[in-house]
Write a structure and sequence with these properties.
CATH superfamily of the largest domain: HUPs
Structural class: alpha/beta
Low-confidence stretches: none
Strand content: 15-25%
Helix content: 25-40%
Distance between the termini: 41 Å
Number of strands: 8
Number of domains: 2
Largest sheet: 5 strands, parallel
Radius of gyration: 19 Å
Strand order of the largest sheet: 3-2-1-4-5
Number of helices: 11
Order of helices and strands: HEHEHHEHHHEHEHHHEEE
CATH topology of the largest domain: Rossmann fold
CATH architecture of the largest domain: 3-Layer(aba) Sandwich
Length: 268
């Protein structure tokens, strides 16, 4: 990386936990619009899992991922550190004051998750030393937290969000989709459909009415809704009232069997 920097090249980092898919390819292609060199890190970070079973079941296919990248984008650099390399000072999670952006939704239901994300990214940013780092808007709350992280740590990394990549039926691309069978993949389309319905209702209905309709759809489905929240985009605080000129997003987390899926969408 130092050689590239000395040549004046812009370095981009796409941090992943592997199980690469078309959504990652879209993120990498997006990164090349801004950067001369793109590094994809593959590291399943233990400190961001609040559920040991979820960590154990997370798909790990390093060789398959490397072949996938070579086939679709051979010039991309791949960084696959081990735990000792990333957590040279011991496997521990640091604590960060992210403010209100992590108080609800994922922060509420996955205790310590964002501290774990911050801990690994701080280290990856130090090791790779990128000029820019790229994150998908599917994990919008994470994107906001990472932007806050670099203001806390003072690291000179520009954080850039990439639009959510979806399949032809609207389902957000996710590594967890690999754990779903064909029937479940079809059932999971409800998440996108519910968010789309919330967006279509947003101008004419109250937030409480929208929440009621979305929850009703899940009650009649194979999915178990963990949360549906409408929040102000600027601070990610759930609200039941709408204010003029304010931007809002809808967020969903739901279980399909033992697979947890999340998604979100701008509502106005």
């Amino acid at each position: 990386m130092e050689i590239n920097k000395n040549k004046g090249e812009t370095i981009g980092l796409v941090p992943t936990m592997g199980a690469l898919h078309d959504g990652h390819l879209a993120l990498i292609s997006f990164a090349y619009k801004f950067c001369d060199v793109v590094v994809v890190s593959i590291f399943v970070n233990p400190t961001q899992f609040n559920n040991a079973s979820d960590l154990e079941k997370y798909p790990r296919h390093i060789e398959k991922d490397a072949a996938f990248l070579k086939k679709h984008n051979s010039k991309t650099l791949v960084f696959t550190p081990n735990v000792e390399e990333v957590y040279a000072d011991g496997l521990k999670s640091e604590s960060y004051n992210f403010g209100s952006i992590v108080d609800f939704m994922e922060g509420e239901f996955r205790a310590g998750h964002f501290d774990g994300v911050g801990s690994v990214l701080k280290r990856l940013f130090t090791i790779v030393d990128p000029d820019k780092a790229f994150f998908g808007e599917k994990d919008y709350q994470q994107l906001m937290a990472v932007k806050k992280l670099v203001t806390i740590t003072g690291q000179k990394v520009e954080i850039i969000g990439c639009p959510t990549n979806r399949n032809e039926f609207g389902l957000a691309q996710s590594s967890r989709n690999f754990r779903l069978n064909d029937t479940q993949l079809k059932q999971a389309e409800l998440i996108f459909e519910a968010l789309t319905q919330a967006r279509s209702m947003f101008d004419d209905y109250s937030i409480l009415d929208i929440e009621k309709e979305v929850k009703k759809r899940f009650q009649q489905s194979a999915l178990e809704l963990e949360y549906f929240s409408i929040v102000k985009t600027k601070d990610l605080i759930p609200t039941t009232t709408k204010e003029p000129k304010e931007a809002y997003r809808g967020f969903i987390a739901a279980f399909l069997g033992d697979v947890r899926l999340i998604d979100n969408m701008a509502l106005n």
